[in-house]
Amino acid sequence: MPFDFEVEDGLNFGDWLHREIHANALVESHGWAAEQVRRVSARLQAGRPESERLIVEVPWLREANAFTAPGRYVYFSRRLLERCPREEAVAFVIAHEIAHHDLGHLDLFSGWAGRLSRLAGARLMALPFQALERRLYGSERECAADRHGLALCIAAGYHPMRCLGLYDVLEHFALDAKDFEMVYGLDPESDEELSGEAPWTTRARIWAWQRSRGYLPIQDRKAALVRWLEANAGFRGSPAG
Q1: Phi and psi at residue 27, to the nearest 5°
Q2: What are the 10-residue block averages of pLDDT along the chain, 241 residues in total?
Q3: Contact between 158 and 94 (Cβ < 8 Å)
Q4: DSSP-derived 3-state class of residue 224
Q5: What is the DSSP string of 39-83?
């Protein structure tokens, strides 16, 4: 089972967070959105005992994101879900969050859980929860979750290149917000920023940027997974359509 922390007598952090989200946001339990995440989640976790499967829920939040926390729940915001054009993109989002549990990343919440539990529910919903995840995980763990999540999708029979269509969705959100650095990085004209041959000053700027953002730029994340597929899965090409 995913690692968890007690924050109140008889109440662990995951259940506490679940209670606060349900108290402060609409969470869909019926309709296409809830049915889709349940179906995809079951497919991704088909080989796991029922008691160890994560539960995916769809809250209505201002942010277009997905996140998880110690406990059994993954939260996939309706705003992001409704922009995913294919089931493969939905699967990749869910698999990425499952990967954080599989890889032990939730252990990093030790010490933070109690502090969060002392916040009022309204404050929690305003809290940029994903920013906290990024601060704890960092780009290396996020990339590891990308790789493990994509492997889970492949094992479940999803086409990997269609899964990577998620990055097109994330890119559209970033460009709509005029967050060009999130898409292209610090220098849109350079392809050498992440190279080991780059000057130390460039690498230092990139390191600081990654620590503040928690992710590689979107285009770099996608390119890294394409390279990983070619090197480790023997995958070439993309299906039509």
Answers
A1: -120, 120
A2: 50 80 90 97 96 95 88 94 95 97 84 59 48 64 93 96 95 81 63 53 52 70 90 57 35
A3: no
A4: helix
A5: HHHHHHTTTS-GGG--EEEEE--SS--EEE-SSSEEEE-HHHHTT
